[in-house]
């Protein structure tokens, strides 16, 4: 959960904003050779420790915040579009769909 991952938010439910990320538990797990899987879109309020949910795009926001807190070199987000494009087609009008791509090239 976001709470277990150290995602600290304000107390605004359904539109919470991340205040801090304390990823000690995730770092320990990764250092032990494990793969950490974190549910995005949620955290825990700084006041009261209530579970909160982030607004639209909250899962992507969680991924980026955790990547930054862990000093990751890259944060790749694969999302719900019809295929793989050269850029985000919702942002870049001339983005081209890639007909075929290998798993290695995706990484």
UniProtKB/TrEMBL annotation:
Any one Gene Ontology cellular component term annotated for this protein: cytosol
Enzyme class (EC, first level): transferase
GO biological process entries: homoserine biosynthetic process; lysine biosynthetic process via diaminopimelate
Gene Ontology molecular function, alphabetical: aspartate kinase activity; ATP binding
Gene3D superfamilies membership: Acetylglutamate kinase-like
Keyword Transferase: yes
Annotated protein name in UniProt: aspartate kinase
Organism of derivation: Streptomyces sp. SID7499
């Amino acid at each position: 959960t976001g709470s277990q991952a150290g995602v600290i938010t304000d107390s605004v439910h359904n539109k919470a904003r991340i205040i801090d990320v304390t990823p000690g538990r995730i770092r320990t797990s990764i250092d032990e050779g494990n793969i950490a899987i974190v549910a995005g879109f949620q955290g825990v309020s700084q006041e009261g420790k209530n579970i909160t949910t982030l607004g639209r795009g909250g899962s992507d926001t969680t991924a980026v915040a955790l990547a930054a807190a862990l000093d990751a070199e890259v944060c790749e987000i694969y999302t719900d579009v019809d295929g793989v494009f050269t850029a985000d087609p919702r942002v870049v009008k001339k983005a081209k769909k890639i007909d075929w791509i290998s798993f290695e090239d995706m990484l």
